[in-house]
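Re: the request from the purification team.
They wanted to know what the chain is likely to look like in 3D before they choose a buffer screen. I agreed to run a prediction and write the result into the notebook, where they can find it.
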Amino acid sequence: MVELKGIERRYRVGGQWVHALAGVDLIVPQGQFAAVVGPSGSGKSTLLNILGCLDRPDAGHYGLDGTDVSTFDDERASDFRNRRIGFVFQSFHLLPRLDRAGERAAACSGLHVTPRRT
């Protein structure tokens, strides 16, 4: 289950603070799907970055399957993301393709890699 309570994220732009997210509450029960839609600049990417443990909120609580991930440091967030979160990229070409040597290196590092078909 995904649970957000009072999530806030702000950025400094020039000399001013801009609230990308202000008081966001969201619950997505286990097994359910949700879509994030809205106009440009409405905070969609910021929200997805927080949900994916790529960024941390400035305030509020983010719980994922009963774990409070809103306070994770970078290392713990990276480990949690690697083991528990999947990403589907809109622009798949942003990820480099691995050759056989790269696939072996990734597998040896503990990363699960499915060989691609050619």
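For the purification team: The domain at 2-90 is CATH 3.40.50.300 (Rossmann fold).
Please add any questions underneath this entry.
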